[in-house]
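chain below, 93 aa
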Amino acid sequence: MPVIYKITYPNGKIYIGQDRTDSINYFGSANNDLIEKDFTKDQKRDFTIRKEIIWESETSSIEELNRMEIMFIEKFQSNNPDIGYNRRPKFKK
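prediction:
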């Protein structure tokens, strides 16, 4: 079942993504370099993130799933570098 999820990192920043299979083990494709620079070596040694399903639909099309992902990215402002790790769509101040 297609879902939109929100990942919350220990620093409070978030990442919004989609998963077309609702896999419990999928945590998105956020840019590793962006995330890694926000944490020290010691912080990276014990690291907990939270994954929340914020939308799901048994009948959505890929187009609707894509639209919903963008809508949630904009709603939560996870494309704002101060708030999250999404880089698309580009954040407009």
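The beta strands are 3-8, 14-19, 50-56. The mean pLDDT is 95.
thats it, cya
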